Predict the structure.
Amino acid sequence: MSGATDVRAVVTDLDGTMVPEDGIVSDATVRAAADLAGAGIALIAATARTPAGVAALPALTPYLAVAVCCGGAVGWSADDGVVWRETIDATSVRGIVETALERVAGAGIAAHDGDRWRMTEEYITQRPRQRPDVVEIVAAAELAAYPACCLAVCHPDLDSADLVGLLTSTPLDPPPFVTYSDRHLVDIVPGHVDKSTGVARALQSLGLDPTEAIGFGDMPNDLPVFGLVGYAVAVGNAHPEVLAAAAAVTACVHDDGVVRTLHELGLVRAGRLAAPACRCLDSG
């Protein structure tokens, strides 16, 4: 990417990249989003969150051109609502659930059908954070009664990479796409879907080419986007694989790394950014 004039879209993950653990979007991020909108630069969220999860960030959502939700399976905007929805059929959901129960003792399982989460008791116990979606607690077998845009499998002790290995050790037909965006958790979406397919769809709807986009991320589920956009930036707190794949590394989420890079490119004003203080900044 030769300069700021090449950037017509900013694609960013939310949690861990633009939104810290407390879920509060910083004032600097909101100002930057407003600056992008004022300059006619599309802001696209690419997230594992559902549409309701994105809408739970009311300071940010007015500035999003499109939100690529559920790891690419759902497209949403504040103006138009759901603009696309891809699903895993109920038979395939059953195969995923059975594999999780067989391979991962003590796993919690959740499935989102585009409107609500259905979760096992184990899942809600392990991940009790309040969610903006309607949540129904069900037995694991009942999850297979419905198609799902995305599923999530968690475990209190197993790392995400180990969970991916266990869940993909038994071939499924058709195979889903299994990745992760958090520790002790994996995300599962239809096999033809990932964040990059959703972002490509969003960019096409806006008449934009992926080479005109800059992308930000922190976890392995962001890697497909890194392979799509013209310039990829990891925040300093990113997973090692993401740091290795990025063209550049910025400050961590706690120091508004996304905003800092956008300012360095001349896309947004600096506002009142303090000097970076986060220890997880990998480079200057």
Remarks:
- The domain at 90-189 is CATH 3.30.1240.10 (Hypothetical Protein, Haloacid Dehalogenase-like Hydrolase; Chain: A; domain 2).
- The chain has two domains: 4-85+194-264, 90-189.
- The radius of gyration is 18 Å.
- The chain is about 25% helix and 25% strand.
